[in-house]
Amino acid sequence: MSNEALEKLTTELGAAPPQSFAGLPPERLASLADALRRERESRASGLNQAAEEALKLVPALARGPVRRILFR
Fold first, then answer.
1. What is the secondary structure of 27-54 as a DSSP string?
2. What sign does the CA torsion over 58, 64, 68, 69 have?
3. Which of 29, 42, 59, 65 would be 5's cystine partner, CB 3.0–4.6 Å?
C-alpha cells in the first residue's frame, strides 16, 4: 500500500484498515479516504442543523445559556 494513501485512510478510519485493502491501488485508497471524510463532514453538518432547530424549542431568553452548555 502507498504510505501516504494508507496514512490518510488510517486517519479517516481512526484505525488501521483491514489487510484485505493491501491489494487496492493507492488511488482507490485515497478515494475511499476522501469519501469517508466527506460523509463525516455531511453528518456533522446535519447534526449541527438539527441542534439549531431543536434550540428553537427553548425559550428565547434561555437559548444562549443552553447553547453554551451543549456546545462547549
1. HHHHHHHHHHHHHHHHHHHHHHHHHHHH
2. negative
3. 29
Helix, strand, coil percentages for the chain (3-state, nearest 5): 80, 0, 20
d(CA 72, CA 59): 20
**Grid coordinates in use for 68?**
453554551
Q: Position 24: which residue type? A: L
**Cα distance between residue 50 and residue 38, in whole Å:** 18
Contact (Cβ atoms closer than 8 angstroms) between residue 29 and residue 1: yes
pLDDT digits (tens, 9 = 90+) for 32-53: 999 999 999 999 899 889 988 9
